[in-house]
Every structure is written in C-alpha cells, then in structure tokens.
Write the structure tokens for this entry.
Amino acid sequence: MSRIILASASSRRKEILQNLNLKFDIVVSDIEEKIDKQLSNEENVEKIALEKALDVAEKTNDTPGIIIAADTMVVADDILIGKPTNDQEAFCILKSLSGKQHEVITGICVFSTEKNRKIVSHRNTKIKFATHSDEVIWRYIETGEGRDKAGAYAIQGLGSLFVDTIEGCYTNVVGLPITLLCDMLAEFDVHIL
C-alpha cells in the first residue's frame, strides 16, 4: 500500500483516520487559506483542500504517497463563519446559530504524488441548533472546546448539546466525511475493508 499522508494538524481528522485503521503520517500544510469571493462556498473548500494537498506534495516530493487534505467551513444565512478569535466572538457566533439552521461544508482532495493524479470533491451537511440561553452558551464557551473550531463548537463533544437535528453526514461536521473519503481512496486502490 502507498504511504498515506494526512495534510492536517486536526486531532479530529487524525482520530477519524485512526478509527479506520489506516496507517498514515502527518505533514501539515501551512498555506494561507484564502477565500475567493468569485467562487461558491463549495468551490472554495475544494480549492483550499487542493492547495493544501499540493503544498504537502511539494514538502514530501522525495517520497511517493497519497495525500489527504481537507477544508471545512460553516455557513449560516450565506455568511461564512470561521473559527472564533476570542470568547466574545464565540458567543456571538453561537448566539447567531441558536434556534437556526446552518450548513457545514467540507472539501477533500486525495492526491497521488506517484501518479500525479488528484480527486477533489465536497460534502454538505445541514445542522439545526436548539435554542439555548446566553448562560448555557457562556458555560459551553468556558469549556474551551470550541475555540479552534469553525462555528465555535465541536459536534463530537459537548457541542452536541446544541444540535437539534442533523441532515447528512455526521463525520463531515467533525471535519472529514468518511463515506466520500473511502470512495475517493478506492479510486487509488486503497480499500478500508
């Protein structure tokens, strides 16, 4: 099997691949994630995932392998929501999502440096938040769990308390849609089962 490289420092993505029993190395991309306002949200996450994969391919050009790169964004009312820069911003984000629906979009690029071939795709998931009081939102923020997460929450942790309904892929919201990833890896003869 080819060397697999995860182009991410995300502990969530690392855990997802470990749960699939994949053996992989981590080489973090340090590209600046720039949003192109001329592109759709789906095109932007795909573009950024591709840029991350190409950056890591350049860093590892001495060893052939298959690079997995991803980018996740949260969108509410056509507004892109990134990671909060401080607790007050986290509160504003969570307050704006309270009682409403938003979308989580993850772009994935699987790139074979050996074959110089790439597949890029994305997955969308709709999340409806329950309505919560300011006090509950602040108590969640104080846990620190959502500080480095797009949308200021982690669905796999205490942030799941905010989620009323989910329509689509759960692991997409965590940061790496497994079914889509497995289909993409199969195109490179990497089979999970």
In short: Residues 95 and 133 are 8 Å apart (CA to CA). Helices lie at 11-19, 41-59, 87-97, 134-143, 170-174, 178-186. Residues 4-186 form a domain with the Maf protein fold (CATH 3.90.950.10). The chain has one domain: 4-186.
